[in-house]
Amino acid sequence: MIQTDIIIIGAGPVGLFTVFEAGLLKLRCHLIDSLGQPGGQCSEIYPKKPIYDIPGFPTILAGELIDNLMAQASPFKPGFTLGEAAVSIDKDDENQFIVTTIKGTKHRAPIVMIAGGLGVFEPRKPPIDNISSFENNGVEYIIRNPEIYQDKVCVVAGGGDSALDWSIYLAEKKIAKRVILVHRSSSFRGHLDSVQRVIDMAEKGEIDLVTEAEVTGLVGSNFLQEVIITHQKEGERVINADHFIPLFGLKPSLGPIADWGLELEKGAIKVNTLDYSTNIPGIYAIGDVNTYTNKLKLILCGFHEGTLAVQSAFARIHPEKKNVLKYTTVNGVNGF
Ligand SMILES: Cc1cc2nc3c(=O)[nH]c(=O)nc-3n(C[C@H](O)[C@H](O)[C@H](O)COP(=O)(O)OP(=O)(O)OC[C@H]3O[C@@H](n4cnc5c(N)ncnc54)[C@H](O)[C@@H]3O)c2cc1C
Q1: What residues pair up with 218 in beta bridges, in sequence order?
Q2: Pick from 290, 328, 210, 293: nearest CA to 15
Q3: Do domains 2-122+251-331 and 125-248 have the same CATH topology?
Q4: What spacing in Å lies between the alpha carbon of 328 and ligand 1's midpoint?
Q5: Which residue(s) pair with 31 in the sheet?
C-alpha cells in the first residue's frame, strides 16, 4: 500500500505542477498514470511542438515543458505509478481513499486530485479482423521504444504528424531496415516540413511511400510476417514485414473514473470553482478533465486550478492549522 497526502491521477502538466504547489504546503504527492511516461498530452501527442502561451516562455517545446515541470517538482520527491490506469476508488474506516490500479497497486491518501485530462488514451485501431491477435506480436499503436525496430521491416500507417515523424525517425536514424509509410489519401495532415521531408526521403529511396492505399490484412503464425496493402487503383499486394504500426491517433475516454459517482457533464467532471472540488468531499478535479462555466482547456488554467485545489486540500488535512501564503521569493523552495 502506497501512503501519501495527495493521490494525483494523471501525470500530465497539471498533475506535475500540482506536486510543486502541494510541496510548498508540505504535502506529499503520488502520481498514477496509465501511460508509461509522465507528461500527458504534451509527451504523448505533441512533444516536439512549440507552445507559445506558457507565461514567461515566449516559446517552449511541449516535451521541454514536461522536463522542466519534472525538475520543478523533484525537490518534493513525488512517487509515480506509471503504466497503470486507476480503476477503482474506495474509502476505508479512517476516512482515507484507496485508489487501485488495473494491476492491483493500491494507494492510500486523505485527498485525491483527478488530473486525468482527456482520460485514458485509447488508440484508434484500423478495422482489420485479426489485428488484436498481433498486438505486441508485431503490431504497436504507440512507439514507446524505437530500439525494437532495429533492422526490422516496419509498415507505418497514418497521415498525421506521428506517422510522418516516426517514419522519418526510423529511416533517418537507420534503425529500421526498411520503412513503408502507407496513407489512404495523397495529402497529409501533418506539418508541412515533415510532409516535405517524407517526400524528399521517398525520392531518395529512404522511405517507401504508398499513398491512396490502406493496410487491409495481417498474416503470421504467432508473430506478424506479412502485411496486405490494398491500393485504391492497383489492388492488393503482400509485403513481408516484421512490424505494423498504425498511428491513427488516440481517442480520449474518461474510462473507469466515469463510474466513481462523480457528477459529470458531457464527459467531464463538474467542479466548484471556489476550490475545484467535486461533489465527493476530498476529491478534486483539475485541468482538462473538469468542467465549469467558461472553462478553457489550457495548461495555464490547469496550473491555476491545481494551485487553488491544494490550498483547499491543506485545510481539509490540517483543519487546525492556518495556512498563510508564502512567496517563494521570500521562503525559497524547501524540499523533502
Ligand atoms: C496538439 C495539441 C496542441 C496543444 N497546444 C496547446 C497550447 O499551445 N497551449 C495550451 O495551453 N494547451 C495546449 N493543448 C492542450 C493541453 O495539452 C492540455 O490542456 C493539457 O495537456 C491538459 O493537461 P492535464 O494535465 O489536465 O491533462 P493531460 O495532459 O491530458 O494528462 C492527463 C493524464 O491522465 C492520465 N489518465 C487519465 N485517466 C487515468 C486513469 N484512470 N488512470 C491513470 N491515468 C489516467 C492520462 O494517461 C494522461 O497522461 C494542446 C493539445 C494538443 C492535443
Answers
A1: 227
A2: 290
A3: yes
A4: 27
A5: 8, 80
**Is the pLDDT assigned to residue 117 strictly greater than 90?**
yes
Distance 242 CA to ligand 1 centre (A): 32
Q: Rounded to an integer, what distance in angstroms lies between the CA atom of residue 41 and that of residue 35?
A: 10
Cell numbers linked to 121 = 488514451
Least confident of 51-55, 123-127, 156-160, 229-233: 123-127
User: Would you list the DSSP string of 27-41?
Assistant: --EEEEESSSSS-HH
User: Atom 2 in ligand 1: which residue has the minimum CA distance?
Assistant: 46
Tell me, in angstroms, the distance from the centre of ligand 1 to residue 220's CA.
Answer: 36
Distance 267 CA to ligand 1 centre (A): 15
Q: Given ligand 1 and candidates 87, 271, 299, which is best to mutate, with the most ligand atoms within 8 Å of its CB?
A: 299
**117-126, 234-243, 258-267, range with the lowest pLDDT:** 117-126
Domain ranges of the chain: 2-122+251-331, 125-248
| Residue 123 confidence (pLDDT) | 85
Domain 125-248 has CATH 3.30.830.10: no
Q: What CATH architecture does domain 2-122+251-331 belong to?
A: 3-Layer(bba) Sandwich (3.50)
Contact residues of ligand 1, CB 6 A cut-off:
9-15, 32-35, 40-42, 45-46, 51, 53, 85-86, 115-121, 255-257, 287-289, 297-300, 302
